[in-house]
Amino acid sequence: MTDDEGGGPWEALGELRRQVPLPLRLLGYLALVVLITFVVVLIGAICLDDWALAYNLLVSNTAPDDPTVKSSGVGYLLSLTGWLAAPALVGAWAGELSGSIVEAGKGPTLAESARMHREKHPPPQAKNRGGDSS
To answer: Which residues lie below 8 Å from residue 2, measured CB to CB, with a gap of 6+?
Structure first.
């Protein structure tokens, strides 16, 4: 990729993401995970004809292969969603927080650091080691 291409859509999305404040990004991720979880529970409750059972499957109070579960496939889907929803929320929070910390602490590149070090601490001058005693 050349410099005149501008980085493409991914760079534009990254720039747009950096313009949104961290609390709003976290709220957006939270809303997305909650929405997906709610949709799965809604589908599960419709398939199982029981909201309480769908909730109990989601929070692992009831096993997916329990005899009260009409469809074990839906039971396993709800159980899996429950196992994935909490880590997704924690992962989104931790990822955004660590990303914002890294972006805030961006310093000079390695080449810039080396140049600044050479300017601050110039290399010692070479001593005349030849047999020249004049």
So the answer is: none
Global model pTM greater than 0.70:
no
User: Any idea how long the chain is?
Assistant: 134
CB 37 within 8 A of CB 55: no
CA dihedral 35, 39, 40, 44 (to 10 degrees): 150
Distance CA 100, CA 105 (A): 9
Nearest to 29 by CA among 90, 78, 79, 81: 90
Cα 22 from Cα 25, distance rounded (Å): 5
Q: Are 37 and 47 in contact (CB under 8 A)?
A: no
CA distance 111 to 8: 26
Q: What is the pLDDT of residue 133?
A: 55
Assess contact for 71 and 47: CB atoms under 8 A: yes
pLDDT one-digit tens code per residue, 22-44: 788 878 888 887 888 888 878 87
Exposed, middle or buried: residue 49 (CB in 10 Å: 0-12, 13-18, 19+)? exposed
